[in-house]
Design brief:
It catalyses: Hydrolysis of terminal non-reducing alpha-L-arabinofuranoside residues in alpha-L-arabinosides. It is built from ten helices and 30 strands. By secondary structure, it is of the alpha/beta class. It folds into three domains: 343 residues, TIM Barrel (Alpha-Beta Barrel), CATH 3.20.20.80; 141 residues, Jelly Rolls (Sandwich), CATH 2.60.120; 93 residues, no CATH class. A hairpin with a 7-residue loop joins β28 and β29. The protein binds alpha-L-arabinofuranose.
Length: 632
């Protein structure tokens, strides 16, 4: 029974309580929310990013009608601009008949371009030619087997100055293995850059906008805030600026790299192992926040790296530059149109301010003292110029530990307003720690639970998260904001699981965890009404949804394998990224009953522990195997 005390009123719950955190992990941005269909559109991929990358990653040479030529990616004085240095040079032999062409094809991200009959796509390219007669470009959409999906486009490139050409193409046939083919006729040298195929329909039809189904699923959460752009993406990598000709490739996410015309945004290598174009940059994030009615909450690097890197940059000039960049970011978001950065915002199409109120400095830091020395300098500079901006700090890897304790002590001492906590835990932990915030100091900093999840996308995980969120809400006077993480995952590019929304190139689907977030986000109360429950049943429901027992040949095929008992106790967990498997609990003898025909077998000869089906020689347990199949 639940007793409600309608005479007392608990803490108020802010409208911004439940939000979302977006980071380009699991191809969330490039290849996901940012719907550019051409991968490596500006030929900037480089072996320095990843051993398998070249300027021609995702591109293939192609020819029609017997045309011949040669191609290479070059970085020379003819480049499009200093931030987009590589381009594709085609040297055409000429001499083949009319309609013949030599050039390239691009198969897009992962499994090929998903193209829908009747939908329109904008093809665009920056091009120049030294052929005085001009160069005819033929643009086709084809399946992997070469079947045409739309009438070809014909583009006439004229002159040896970089010029942007664009045209609309509407497929008459749908495909999920589409590719874009661009060939050039005649002779001479033609140069191409920023080859793009972009859906005309985007979320709210913004130019350079967002993939509609994914943006709509995020919007349906009714988020109170949008934290972006990371995560480890922000605080790892070099803190050097992107300045030609000395441009570090693995840079932390720095907002100035991501604004202005898209052809002037430099490609960067992402902490999660792939390249990002910054097509989805700070302007687009601010605009998305506005479109979904969410408070924007950007995160800037504090010149200390976390996420396993653990380095602090001591260069005072660099530190000062980052502090100034943060002040400039606030001007970009809120400044008048005659200010330097406010003008850029206006030129990008948004003269009105974005209404920025919070900036987070640093993410999940591992070096508490080094981070804090820098944090207080950022905060002092921001507060001196923008006293109304809340500067958010963090607590390192939570939910506990020496770093966490030290950072909380430093945050408390310095009178920080809001501290970001992150934790990824078992559902059992969530059930056992519902009261975590009941005892938090009401005089100290407030909590921004910027990243949390229980490890799994099952119904049971979702219920555990819902139960935990009642504890957050009960403590809404100290827990001000909370966001599940990560939000998006392309099923062919998984660096982190579980995630809230899954997708492939053409479709997307939500999870039970998503439904919990949607429920809470769309039903934010005004205030907590004190209540007491008695006779609460113990949580003894078995976990359902066992997978893979009969097909699991080798643990190397799976990520994140867990074995749990019927009462939710995790017995074995292995994400296979952290070395050998480990038993997290001893298996008690003879206390388990058979269910679903699952048997547990320990293979002492192998590094990993195997779970197999059906061998009665082994002791029976009431177990469920949960595993995510490794992509590829
Ligand atoms: O959400 C995935 C990662 O988890 C984030 O990048 C990082 O902040 C945390 O460790």
């Amino acid at each position: 029974s639940i007793t409600i005390d309608s005479t007392a009123m608990g803490p108020e719950i802010a409208d911004t309580m439940y939000g979302v955190f977006l980071e380009d992990i699991n191809s969330a941005a490039d290849g996901g929310l940012y719907p550019e269909l051409v991968r490596n559109r500006s030929f900037e991929f480089n072996p320095a990013d990843s051993g398998s990358y070249t300027g021609l990653t995702a591109w293939r040479e192609t020819a029609t009608g017997g045309a011949t030529g040669s191609l290479r990616v070059v970085d020379d004085a003819e480049r499009l601009n200093e931030r987009n240095r590589n381009y594709l040079r085609l040297d055409l032999d000429g001499g083949a008949g009319a309609g013949a062409g030599y050039g390239v094809s691009n198969a897009g991200f992962h499994t090929g371009m998903a193209l829908t009959a009747g939908d329109s796509y904008t093809f665009s390219v920056w091009a120049r030619t030294d052929n005085p007669a001009g160069t005819p470009l033929t643009v086709s959409l084809r399946t992997a087997a070469g079947q045409a999906l739309a009438a070809d486009l014909a583009i006439d490139v004229r002159g040896d100055e970089w010029t942007k050409y664009s045209a609309t193409v509407t497929p008459t046939t749908s495909a999920t293995d589409g590719s874009l083919v661009v060939t050039a006729g005649g002779g001479g040298t033609v140069r191409l850059d920023m080859v793009s195929l972009f859906p005309e329909e985007t979320y709210k039809n913004r130019p350079n906008g967002l993939r509609k189904d994914l943006a709509e699923k995020i919007a349906a959460l009714n988020p109170g805030f949008l934290r972006f752009p990371g995560g480890c993406l922000v605080n790892t990598g070099s803190h050097e600026a992107y300045e030609a000709p000395n441009w570090p490739r693995k840079r932390s996410y720095q907002w100035k790299d991501t604004v202005g015309p898209i052809e002037e945004r430099a490609t960067n290598h992402n902490f999660w192992g792939y390249n990002q174009t910054y097509g989805l940059g700070y302007f687009e994030y601010f605009q998305f926040a506005e479109d979904i009615g969410a408070m924007p909450l950007p995160v800037v690097p504090a010149l200390v790296t976390g996420c396993g890197e653990n380095r602090a940059t001591d260069d005072p000039i660099l530190l000062q530059r980052h502090i100034q960049d943060t002040l400039d970011l606030i001007e970009f978001a809120n400044g008048p149109v005659d200010s330097t950065w406010g003008r850029l915002r206006a030129e990008m199409g948004h003269p009105e301010p974005f209404g920025l109120t919070h900036v987070q400095v640093g993410n999940e830091e591992n070096l508490p003292d080094a981070f804090f020395e820098r944090f207080v300098r950022f905060r002092a500079a921001i507060e001196a110029e923008y006293p109304d901006i809340t500067v958010v700090s963090n607590s390192g890897p939570a939910p506990d530990g020496a770093t966490f304790d030290r950072l909380w002590a430093l945050n408390r001492q310095a009178g920080v307003e809001l501290v970001d906590e992150h934790y990824y835990v078992s559902p059992q932990w969530m059930l056992e720690n519902n009261a975590r915030y009941d005892s938090y100091d009401r005089e100290g900093p407030e909590v921004f639970l910027g990243e949390y999840a229980s490890r799994g996308n099952t119904h049971y995980n979702a219920l555990a998260e819902a139960a935990y969120m009642t504890g957050l809400e009960r403590n809404a006077d100290v827990v001000r904001l909370a966001s599940y993480a990560p939000v998006l995952a392309h099923e062919d590019s998984v660096q982190w699981s579980p995630d809230l929304i899954w997708f492939d190139n053409s479709t997307s689907w939500s999870t039970p965890n998503y439904e919990v977030q949607r429920l809470f986000g769309n039903n934010v109360g005004d205030a907590v009404v004190p209540s007491r429950a008695t006779g609460t049943p113990a949580l003894t429901e078995p976990i359902t949804g066992a997978v893979g027992l009969s097909t699991w040949a080798t643990s190397a095929a799976y990520d994140d394998v867990r074995v749990v008992s019927a009462d939710g106790t995790e017995l074995f967990a292995d994400d296979f990224s952290q070395g050998a498997a480990r038993w997290t609990h001893a298996v008690p003898a003879g206390t388990w009953t058979v269910q679903d025909g699952a048997y547990l077998q320990t293979d002492t000869a192998a590094t990993n522990t195997l779970v197999t089906a059906g061998d009665p020689a082994w002791r029976d347990y009431d177990l469920h195997l949960k595993a995510t199949k490794r992509s590829g």
